[in-house]
TrEMBL record:
Positions of the Phasin domain: 29-126
Disordered, as annotated region: 72-92, 135-155
Signal peptide coordinates: none
Domain of life: Bacteria
Identification of the protein by name: Phasin family protein
Biased composition annotated in UniProt, kind: Low complexity: 143-155
Pfam (any one): Phasin_2
Lineage: Bacteria, Pseudomonadati, Pseudomonadota, Alphaproteobacteria, Rhodospirillales
InterPro entries documented for this protein: Phasin, Phasin_subfam-1
Amino acid sequence: MAKQPEFFDFDFTKYLQDMKIPGVDLDAVVESQKKNVEALTNANRLAFEGMQAVMQRQAELLRQSMEEYAKTAQSMGDMKDPQQAMARQTDMAKQAFERMISNMREMSELMAKSNNEVFELLNKRFSETLEEMKGMMDKAEAAKPAARKPAGSSS
């Protein structure tokens, strides 16, 4: 098995902890970033599943359309009267157009639903991240020693 480059052996969290930045809870920062990566992973999974559902539905609609086309072509061959054939073709064209509009609406709704799920997941994580950052800042502020009063001030 090929050896991984040394970069993959680097422990980033240990490096940050060795820096000892005052007032910063590095464990909380690392945990927050793990949650961010997890949220992005879930968002990508949701987006993939949504597109997969759209593609499956499109394939199903295409199959249905082909079956209907084959039936229509067969029934058109049986017609002897040109006026009746023309009326039938017009009616079938109207039905096909209405079905196409309905299918497009369905595909649009499927994609919107998928996009909405992804957006909600990312929005929720973004809000959580802001709250985590606020908590870290509050904690860092509380940990600061009280500022010394300048000499000669009275209070």
